[in-house]
């Protein structure tokens, strides 16, 4: 879940804010994963047993550094709404029982991912509990509750009751007190300024840490004062990685920059600007994507996530090749820590994952209700590209002034993106050493040979190639043949 500011007002500003070509580029974030692996994948609504298998069979071998999992705590169950995806964001207790699986399956999943070299980041719903629903009287572990009474956990004194707007919901987004203390669409707002709530939330997060969880996406962080999150973080064991959901709103008093002292922040504007360039703007405008946003070294970014693919003018898997190309660019561009979305197919924006009639999630089968964007060859292999180029700077930028671009990452890699209906054929200038390289957007190196096209870089750093219409080309120093 996230706050929804007045996007109609901000999108117009963002459309004119695409950055000036030739400006300096923001730096990339330090990798949160292992061995320089910086890319996170969001396996949205996957079962723990499927996450474990994916870490072993796909994520580890492809070089993903981390996996973001759906909220693991007990949540509300809403059969009358068809078990929607968002029921996972209405917490009932801190038992690790949900449609993703049991506590034992969760623990086994973390171990399997660690064995594959993949860190686990849990989506942490700590700002609120549930809303009021006619059939919302039990949780996924069988717990009963009412809106401000969660037996053995929280009672009415543990919630904010802002009393300003009749139903306690946020109305004035220009009032920081309301944003922090009133309810986000009827979700009972925890009094995170109290010692009891801080200790109770920290106990839940420490339980996850004890099972091996490496960090947290802090859901709805914008609706908690930064000091409250800091107080909770101070109670956590070790040094978990935090990235906080703080949606930028033009002119609003609560801004992402206020939360950087607690950890990284999710930079929503990056995905908005990326989508705007690919959908209706020009790729040439991306030459300095990241300038004017939060610092890249403390930002987490995405092309789309579970919220934006349902509520914003964001690119999603529905956009086919355009979406794939945007992800290729995101993984090649040195700004932020990228999160790759892996979703289930939907037409109803409220629909939950593929499941049985009683709401039990089906096993993941890519192509059968599960999209698995992260497995697409261009996306999965660009994870390896990003790992290979590390922090190398952008070099040798070229554009036709429209929707054909190419650029290098120092002497470590080179990428070209063609968002036009005709092939791009030209000689490209790089800083790569001479050699024959595998185009990782269409193949990979196996037994010393490339399963797809290759290009040959001469001693002058140049190569001649054709990039398909609505396609890409990417080479790097670890994919030589």
Automatic annotation (TrEMBL):
Its EC number is 3.2.1.1. It catalyses: Endohydrolysis of (1->4)-alpha-D-glucosidic linkages in polysaccharides containing three or more (1->4)-alpha-linked D-glucose units. Its cofactor is Ca(2+). Coiled coil: none annotated. The keyword Signal applies. Residues 38-386 form the Glycosyl hydrolase family 13 catalytic domain. Residues 395-480 form the Alpha-amylase C-terminal domain. It comes from the Bacteria. Residues 1-28 form the signal peptide. Keywords: Calcium, Carbohydrate metabolism, Glycosidase, Hydrolase, Metal-binding, Signal. InterPro entries: A-amylase/branching_C, A-amylase_C, Alpha_amylase, GH, GH13_cat_dom, Glyco_hydro_b. Belongs to the glycosyl hydrolase 13 family. This is Alpha-amylase.
């Amino acid at each position: 879940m996230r706050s929804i500011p007045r996007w109609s007002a901000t999108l117009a500003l963002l459309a004119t804010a695409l950055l000036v070509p030739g400006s300096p580029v923001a730096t990339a974030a330090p990798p949160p994963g292992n061995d320089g692996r910086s890319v996170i994948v969001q396996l949205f609504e996957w079962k723990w047993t499927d996450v474990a298998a994916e870490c072993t069979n796909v994520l580890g071998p492809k070089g993903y550094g981390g996996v973001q999992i759906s909220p693991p705590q007990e949540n509300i169950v809403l059969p009358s709404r068809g078990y929607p995806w968002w029921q996972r964001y209405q917490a009932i207790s801190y038992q690790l029982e949900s449609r993703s699986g049991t506590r034992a399956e969760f623990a086994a999943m973390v171990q399997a991912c660690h064995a594959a070299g993949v860190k686990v980041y849990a989506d942490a719903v700590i700002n609120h509990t549930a809303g009021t629903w006619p059939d919302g009287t039990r949780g996924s572990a069988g717990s009963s509750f009412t809106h401000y009474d969660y037996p053995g956990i929280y009672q009415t004194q543990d919630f904010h009751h802002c009393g300003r707007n009749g139903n306690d919901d946020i109305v004035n987004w220009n009032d920081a007190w309301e944003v922090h203390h009133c309810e986000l669409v009827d979700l009972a707002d925890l009094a995170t300024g109290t010692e009891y709530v801080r200790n109770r939330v920290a106990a839940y997060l420490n339980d996850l840490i004890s099972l091996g969880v490496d960090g947290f996406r802090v859901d709805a962080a914008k609706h908690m004062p930064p000091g409250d999150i800091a107080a909770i973080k101070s109670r956590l064991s070790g040094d978990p990685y935090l990235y906080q959901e703080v949606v930028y709103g033009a002119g609003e008093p609560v801004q992402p920059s206020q939360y950087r002292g607690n950890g990284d922040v999710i930079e929503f504007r990056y995905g908005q600007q990326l989508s705007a360039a690919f959908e209706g703007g020009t790729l040439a405008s991306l030459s300095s994507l990241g300038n004017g946003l939060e610092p890249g070294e403390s930002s987490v970014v995405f092309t789309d996530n579970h919220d934006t693919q349902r509520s914003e003018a964001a690119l999603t898997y529905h956009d086919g090749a355009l979406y794939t190309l945007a992800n290729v660019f995101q993984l090649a561009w040195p700004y932020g820590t990228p999160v790759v979305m892996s979703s289930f197919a939907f037409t109803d924006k409220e629909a939950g994952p593929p499941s049985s009639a009683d709401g039990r999630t089906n096993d993941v089968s890519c192509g059968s209700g599960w999209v698995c964007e992260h497995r697409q060859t261009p996306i999965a292999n660009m994870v390896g590209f990003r790992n290979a180029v590390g922090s190398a700077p952008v070099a040798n930028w070229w554009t036709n002034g429209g929707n054909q671009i190419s650029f290098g990452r120092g002497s470590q890699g080179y990428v070209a993106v063609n968002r036009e209906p005709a092939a791009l054929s030209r000689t490209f200038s790089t800083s790569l050493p001479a050699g024959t390289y595998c185009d990782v957007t269409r193949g990979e190196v196996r037994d010393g040979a490339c399963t797809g096209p290759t290009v040959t870089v001469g001693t002058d750093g140049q190569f001649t190639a054709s990039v398909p219409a609505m396609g890409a080309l990417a080479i790097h120093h670890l994919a030589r043949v």
